[in-house]
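Preliminary data (for renewal application), flavin-adenine dinucleotide complex.
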Amino acid sequence: MANSEETPRKTKKPAAPRVDMPTQPPQERITNFMEVALGYTQEQAMAEAARCLQCKKPACVKGCPVEVPIKDFIGFLQKGDVPGAYEAIKSTNSLPAVCGRVCPQEVQCEGACILGKKGEPVAIGRLERYTADTYMAQTACDHMVGVTKVCAPIHEDIKVACIGSGPSSLTCAGYLSSHGIKVTVFEALHELGGVLVYGIPEFRLPKDIVHQEVDALREQEVDFFTNWIGGKTFGISELFEAGYKAVFLGVGAGLPKFLNLPGENLIGVFSANEYLTRVNLGRAYKFPETDTPTYAGKNVAVFGGGNVAMDSARTAKRLGAENVFIVYRRTKGEMPARVEELDHAIEEGVELQILSSPIEFKGDDQGVLTSVALQRMELGEPDASGRRRPIPIEGDYFELACDMAIIAVGTGPNPILLEATPELEKTPRGYVQVDEETGETSMSNVFAGGDIVTGAATVISAMGAGRRAAQEIARRLLGEENA
Ligand code: FAD
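Predicted structure:
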């Protein structure tokens, strides 16, 4: 019998197939940095929205770390009401155009969708993207002339500082400013958006989308300062002395990890962090329009199996590499990258060199990388992560010729602010220790969230943390009834 709580209407008709999202053809897109996924047309969005069963107790909402009212927003879309849908999403998610593009929906909202049990889940992420893009396009004029929805009036004397401008801080700033609190964001780099701008490439998340979200915060009177490094240009205690009532730390986990192997300092070996930052933030992808080129390999080996590895490999393809290999210790099924990103990488000609682990980088007499020695692996029993443990096969080595290697095996906490603030308690892994409910650190009225607390995670989990901390800050500064 059907579950009457989840399925409001009995139907024998099988659900219509999920509507595909148009993409640039692979051969065309590897020659440019324009967005790969092109978004739904109105007709496609309506057809996909119509697949939603409007469950009485929607499981999808529980699958979303910020509990977007998914049933409500799709309900609005079913009636053709895009502004209503946008408002519903925005009630808990301050960056819908970003999340619609980069959230791992398959393990979150869509992973919980009832339709996914027997067929394909509703394409919630694509509908979120459609809603955000359509709403922004329809209201572009209003934004340009400043006709935006008025939030609570800003109290200039109730000030909060956010350090870092990634999704955790932007969400915190958005929540607080919409409750009338004056927010200032201090960012170390010269551009705002954190990983959304310096890490995730243009072909997945156009920078305009992030800039639009930042501009919306400016309209809410959030002030932004770039090139301000917490722990160098200013300290946390100075912010309190300057009248800030609370501080949110959203400084991320951008310190690259290396493999610590012989030859890792050869010319041509990069951390993914440096490579992507040069291409994205440094705009090397626009060379020669910009005069900031980057190293471009012909045979590129990328180490890792997550989104960062996929972004690096696909970027290398677009910059002209002939052969790009993802070298991974386990198999394709264990790769932590979003399924869509992995599929897109393979469509673009990226090759998987699975069950292989690097042991040494080799170079010529000029110190330039020429190859990497790899050891073959097999899978053993599952480890603490639940994935099967890779085990080296004794004596089974081979060499992969490459003139560029990109290491994408994870990151650690950004250290500058933490080193300058010894009062901040840290976890055994070196991240900031917080109260799970409120996000407060060991320093009173200093909150933290996002990757600096969890280690490298996701945009939506960083946003969830920014929102939780903002709710607590608002409660303290404005009282329970106004938070
Ligand atoms: P960040 O986005 O890291 O922002 C931190 C900001 O703080 C940075 O701008 C930094 O310059 C600034 N900062 C650091 N120290 C200081 C200081 N002392 N003073 C002032 N400012 C400082 N997640 C997904 O959900 N989907 C994806 O597809 C996805 N793809 C990714 C691809 C790449 C290449 C990378 C690197 C990450 C990806 N992620 C993805 C992860 C996601 O981007 C992060 O989890 C998220 O951005 C973390 O947000 P945050 O606010 O904690 O920090």
